[in-house]
Amino acid sequence: MNSADMTRVARRVNDHPTTGALARLGYVASGVLHLMLALVVVQVAWFGSVTSADQSGALGALASSPGGRAALWVVAVGFAGLAVWQVSEAVGTGGGAGARVKAASKAVLYAALAWTSVQFAQGAPRSSGEQSRDFTAELMSHQGGRFAVAGVGAVVLGVAAYHVHKGWTRGFLRDLREHPGRFVVAPGRLGYVAKGVALGVVGALFVAAAWHARPDEAGGLDAALRTLGDQPFGTALLTVVAAGFVAYAVYSFGRARYART
């Protein structure tokens, strides 16, 4: 199969109603994940919970709720559907190289979330923070590893800035087929900015780990949020971030309806 054939197949997959329906289910799954993440952050902020304040903690909280294991399988299908849709976007759309790379990156992210959801549904979870520290330690063990870790941090900081800009300028409206109304737009702005702030701290931790040559400093979202919690008015900061995650969940539910699929 040559590249033209692959493009045609990808376009057919992209345009198929089932693919669109699965992508919308994926946005619902994203909304559920962010709601559970907000719950975990509130528990950490106000009750000192040891639960990981990240995707693994959110999925663990969902798994422990009534009917949670079944819900996790639905969430996994949704994320897998989004991954397939993003692959078809990367291969089959006529966008430039930047758009294709962006779609491919999202496909990897959603595939990872689908796989993690399956692990939790099967009762075999692993902390995201542990994976982040192991990844950093492995990277630093190679020549030039500190520069690579710093590069990862710089990329994450760039993604963080992108989220803040996209939220503040309402750039996310370009992802929707029509204006969804202020009850989706306002949460979308707050949600994207809150995610950007959290990712910014994650990126800063990677840079700090590279600077100090200490892989244990490069935690993921859990470490970033706990770093915020250790600051003056940390409880209030985490509460605001939790509100931002709730807002992003509301936007995700709105996007499930208005997404340009």
TrEMBL record:
Location of the DUF1206 domain: 25-91, 102-170, 190-258
Pfam families given in the database record: DUF1206
Alphabetic keyword roster: Membrane, Transmembrane, Transmembrane helix
Name used for this protein in its record: Membrane protein
Organism per entry: Cellulomonas soli
Ranges annotated as spanning the membrane: 21-47, 144-164, 192-213, 233-251
InterPro entries noted in UniProt: DUF1206
Keyword Secreted appears in the UniProt entry: no
Keyword Nucleus among record annotations: no
